[in-house]
Amino acid sequence: MGCPAPKVVKNGDGSKLLQNLDLVGQIVEEVVKASTVPVSVKIRKGWSKTNDVSVQVAKIIEQSGAKLITIHGRTRDEFFSGEVDLEAIRKVKEAVSIPVIGNGNIVNEESAKRMFEQTGVDGIMIGRASIGNPWIFKKILHYLQTGEILEEITNKEKLETIIKHIELEVQIKGERVGIPELRKHLACYVKSLPNASKIRQTINQINTKKELVQALKECF
Predict the structure, then answer these.
(1) pTM of the predicted model, to two decimals?
(2) Counting CB atoms within 10 angstroms of each CB, which of 53, 97, 128, 166 has the fewest?
(3) Catalytic residue among 3, 95, 107, 150
(4) Residue 97: which region, alpha, beta or left (left: phi > 0; alpha: psi -120 to 50)?
């Protein structure tokens, strides 16, 4: 119930549901009845800046039987721009007794710590910041446990991670589907490298695992 994408909300799904709280309750109740595992629900704080329903919908979700709530501290209208409303997330945490996960604009160690300190959430969810940067989880966990910031990974470590990602993708989906799907991830992996634009152009023309791995080795 947090997705802001036009193709989703135009069908009344995703964050559009935040304009119909009775339906939210009905959906959660039915899913809980049908599920054999605990149900979690992700929401945004509301549809627009004048429609902050985060506390109200969180209470409905809890009363309907869900066991965990994740809240992205922006409205649907804000998509992924502007500052995340940590105060709204804090209010949701205080309003319900089930665990609450904070989400939105967690991009590094400091922003992760700030989310915990200013909202009291039970955990955090990292989304877009992990694309092309999967080691963000290790770095944040280390910082929260020790207060130390880990050194940036080397290009050698980055290449090893990329190759493992390629191998897993092809193993699961095959080259025909997997390689095209990987392109957006690879673009994020290489964006900090010199000539990143040229590298993206090269990998976007490749359709086999062997050629892709070889091209990336040459780039790195």
Answers:
(1) 0.89
(2) 97
(3) 3
(4) alpha
